[in-house]
Amino acid sequence: MNKTHPLHGLSERPQKFTYPFCYEPHPLSVEASRKVRRYVLSHSELRADAENGKMFGVLVVENEATASGFSFLAAYSGLLAGRNDWKWFVPPVFDAQQPNGHFKQTERLLSAINVVVESMDPNDRLAIELKERRKQMSEDLQQWLFRQYHLLNALGEERDLIEIWHDYHSVKVRRKFPYPPGGAGDCCAPKLLQYAYLQGLKPVCMAEFWMGNSTMTVRHDGQFYPACRGKCLPILTWMLKGLEVDENPQEHDPLFFPIGQKQIKLDVVYEDQWLMVINKPSGLLSVPGRESRLSVWSVVRQHYAESEEWALCHRLDMGTSGLLIIAKTREAFVYMQSQFAQREIKKTYVALLDGVIPNVRGTISLPLKADPLDRPRQVVDYLFGKPAETEYEVLSVKDGITRIELCPHTGRTHQLRVHCAHNEGLGVPILGDDLYGHGSRDRLYLHAQEISFCHPITRERMTLRVEPSF
Hints:
Blueprint: E1 5-6, H1 27-41, H2 44-50, E2 54-62, E3 70-76, H3 102-118, H4 125-147, E4 150-152, E5 158-160, H5 161-168, H6 171-176, H7 188-198, E6 203-211, E7 224-225, H8 229-239, E8 268-271, E9 275-280, H9 296-303, E10 311-312, E11 321-327, H10 330-341, E12 346-353, E13 361-365, E14 368-370, E15 378-380, E16 389-398, E17 401-408, H11 415-421, E18 446-454, E19 461-465
Parallel strand pairs: 11-18
Antiparallel strand pairs: 1-3, 2-3, 2-6, 4-5, 6-7, 8-9, 9-11, 10-11, 12-17, 12-18, 13-16, 14-15, 16-17, 18-19
Helix pairs in contact: 3-4, 5-8, 7-8
């Protein structure tokens, strides 16, 4: 069956191919995504699985046989309704699901060994030997599997997953993580590009979108999302070689440049010889990241710090504006950290929600942990997540936008953003949240408005407040 599907809408061809980790979907990709959605919803077996939550992807390619000059390929992440061979979609890069294939046969053998081991005394010498054999077989099988993924790029070059992983990462990372994470190579983008290269099709643009519900991860039905970095960054870096790709749009941000090439004046709200409290602007990192982006800490070190003892007492997300405490001495830092650990520091945020919620006030308790394959995204995990609690109160509602006060009792990464967006929390994302919401705004509408703490030296209770600019 032909895997290409016609596109009828007339749109200008994008000048460059999509940068998959930060993009606005091109109209051609949007039209293709609508067609995929209609197809899935028209097939009951596919619809039932997709309603539980599934990522789909589209790749627009040149096709002179169509009136528009374009057609598209479609893919899903992992399996769909337990299968990876649905004819309308592109095939996997490597099919590990064949029942008589090496992978499935070895899986069955490992399961049989596991049953035997569980029936034995764990201290028995034979049980210990079987455990070691099972462990080694499992590692060998995973390595064998990754070697079967022979991925192409636009230059016609080919490498397997382990080669790609090792070429991308430093020796230090390779020592700690010698192999890619499980499921690498089975996401939408690698499937789509691999099929296009094999068929001699020329990629034009691509996009990935979510269908259905979301439980652990915060995803919204119909929303477009970037490719995951944990699995796909090394793979797509390789597979996109030879294509003229859009630059990372974040690199054009005025705050994105090598440290030391720009000066910035911090908005100081309070200062004495022990503390400095600033009003951090949205778009400024708290601490330096992997890329050459300006941060509060780099500015402090360059233009403010008078000694090596200066330190940030806590952090705010890059998109979050508001009050941030900086200690000037070791003594002040230790005392402030103690207050954070004992939850004696009270913080109040104000946010705009992209919708209306049913309750005026309440408390959200959803345990959180990092998604290791898609950092910095956080997920709700009742088994392994850390407790996270947030009180909220609606301040006003206007034109479908809710102004809300948020008081976190814990300080988990992205706590407020997840608690607002998750369907077991408020179910409405913060306006401008490009990770858990709909993005497409000039900023994240979240502001650390008030902070209350004991001064590390005088022990006086202090409350500082700065109104948001929105």
